[in-house]
Amino acid sequence: MTNIQEVAELAKVSVATVSRVLNHSDKVTPKTRKKVEDAIKELNYVPNMLARNFRTSKSKSILVILTNISNLFYMEIVHGIRKYANSKGYDILLSETDGELERQIECMQKVKNHIADGAIFLETTTRDAALVALEKKYPVVQCCAYNDDVLLPYVITDNRRGGYMAGSELLKAGRRRLAFCGTDDKSRYNKERRFGFMEAIEKAGIPATDIYTMNLELSFQGGRDAVESLIERKIDGCFFVSDMQAIGAINRMAELGITIPDEISIIGYDNLEICDFIVPALTSISQPARKMGQEAARMLIKKIEKEDKSDTCNIVFEPALVRRDSVKRHSIKK
After folding, report:
1. CA 163/CA 161 separation, integer angstroms
2. What are phi and psi of 110, to 5 degrees?
3. Same domain as 281, residue 181
4. What is the spatial order of strands in the sheet that 178-182 belongs to?
5. pTM of this prediction?
6. Residue 25's domain spans which residues?
7. 307 φ, ψ (degrees, to nearest 5)
8. N or C end of the chain: which has fewer CB within 10 A?
């Protein structure tokens, strides 16, 4: 079996230089890197990862902790995390918790036991106890959601701004019997999107008390389950805090013969690829999911490799309104 010393001899470099190439270090010139990579290919060399991890106490793995792996938006973020992590020589591990504190703490044992070098929390309901235990001890980044009570960096989108954009768009479409269809306020983003939505409504002179608010399951079925209540209250404009909820509602309305956007306008959130393929195509508030994932991975790896010694640095992306066919513009009747 070929060893690292044989690779170094063929490439005419030191063992340390071969190790730097294997670890994707930036301290190797392109010319030297090519010599080492050519030698590795010629010798069919496969590094002993377990031995290397034992020597360095590094696993070259990143733990991604999320509430539910069936969430399509999460999977877009995970794609961004994986792409950046792989480019730096890291693999990713996925752990699903269903928002349970016990599971969150169990997942973090993987970092403490060096199964992973650090963690990215995609949890929307991360409990304080799980995060406080990590603060200042392990490389951790929050993504998509965050907790102000702990000094951990985060990557998010401005959810309040996104909610405001959704409310404004429905008002511009002449809609006045409005509904906010979200989930419970354990999810910080739900609260912030609702605040932004209500801010736009109140700015237009409509009391927040006039807005019908629903707490739904964050799923396709959750959207379907909302429809009868929306019809009963003659809602003509609805903002769902996730595309999957909105798509579920559109599906149920089609079964009932309700025309969108003529009878009711609908806006979702996340701008999933599927928004273009349903009928009518769904207007949505876009989040740059893959960029969020890439930035979270970049921040975490810098911490793992101790390149980031600065104070906590956070990244907040701007949302964007993507207009499609589920919102109809018309003049306001006087």
Report:
1. 5
2. -65, -35
3. yes
4. 212-215, 178-182, 237-240, 265-270, 283-286, 320-322
5. 0.78
6. 4-47
7. -90, -20
8. C
